[in-house]
Specification:
Helix content: 25-40%
Shape: globular
Number of helices: 8
Order of helices and strands: HHEEEHEEHEHEHEHEEEH
CATH class of the largest domain: Alpha Beta
CATH topology of the largest domain: TIM Barrel
Number of strands: 11
CATH superfamily of the largest domain: Glycosidases
Distance between the termini: 118 Å
CATH architecture of the largest domain: Alpha-Beta Barrel
Structural class: alpha/beta
Length: about 280
């Protein structure tokens, strides 16, 4: 009899274990989970493989050239380059001047922060003039590096000449340790030092969102504004602007990598009015 009792207890334990193991999630939960997985999967596909290139499927309302849709309007066209474009064949690039939609000007990265010079700057800067482009040089601003150090470094490395575009300040980021006011004060020092040295009003490059958020002070409105805003038909910024960087995926002869393309909001005469005059101290 004792043996039978033990076997009954064992059977009861097995049944209770089976009941515990038999617990299953409702069928609807599986469908919801599967649906969420599908949404996440296609969201990743869209964000990383479709969204960055959706401009390729967008209807072009302007002119198709250089692998992109060029904004509609009476603009002058140009590009900007740095070491990221690698070694440029400037003779091939110069053939663009004979195209139906020529590129007239080029901005070239010169310096960054207080101690970095673009390794291709001197070669690109000299070749741009030799091949007939209206050239300009820009400095990438590092917020926490002293403004005077950055201005002095740019001046030491960029001997602008008569007929060149004014120096450009490229400001795209703000350090978390800084307020917008501190950033503005720092930028004003750089702009003032550069203007005093080259005797010309510098150009301010940034995105329309960054300018609206951090550079909305009226003191910056006197500077020619070079706005970065990609894959749109018209500039949404309501203020005045001189240059518009409308894409970063241009394809041009002489450059193997993708390149930024820009337009100037004015005539050839108005562009020439921006250039450094013969009386500029840098030409002596």
């Amino acid at each position: 009899m004792a043996v039978k009792k033990k076997t009954k207890k064992k059977k009861k334990k097995r049944k209770s274990r089976k009941k515990k193991n038999d617990f299953q999630l409702p069928l609807w939960f599986h469908y919801v989970l599967l649906g969420l997985m599908v949404i996440v999967f296609f969201s990743i596909i869209y964000l990383f493989f479709i969204h960055p290139y959706k401009y390729r499927w967008k209807k072009c309302t302007g002119i198709k050239a250089y692998g992109v849709c060029i904004p509609k309007g009476d603009y002058l066209h140009g590009l900007d380059v740095s070491r990221h474009q690698g070694k440029i064949n400037w003779d091939d690039l110069a053939l663009i001047s004979k195209e139906e939609l020529p590129l007239d000007f080029v901005f070239i990265k010169a310096t960054e922060g207080g101690d970095f010079k673009d390794e291709n700057f001197q070669s690109n800067f000299n070749s741009a003039k030799k091949t007939g482009f209206i050239r300009g040089a820009y400095h990438y601003y590092i917020p926490l590096t002293p403004a005077k150090k950055q201005a002095d470094f740019f001046i030491q490395n960029v001997p602008l000449e008569s007929g060149d575009l004014p120096p450009v300040l490229d400001i795209e980021v703000i350090n978390k340790k800084m307020t917008s006011g501190a950033l503005q004060d720092s930028i004003k020092i750089w702009l003032s030092l550069i203007e005093n040295h080259y005797q010309v009003t510098p150009i301010l490059y940034t995105s329309y969102k960054f300018k609206s958020k951090h550079l909305s002070h009226a003191d910056f409105d006197k500077y020619p504004y070079w706005i970065a805003h990609y894959y749109i038909d018209t500039v949404r910024y309501e203020g005045e602007w001189s240059f518009w960087q409308h894409t970063d995926v241009g394809i041009v002869p002489g450059i193997k990598e993708l390149v930024d393309l820009n337009v100037f909001n004015g005539t050839k005469v108005q562009l020439e009015e921006l250039l450094l005059p013969p009386s500029n101290p840098q030409t002596k």
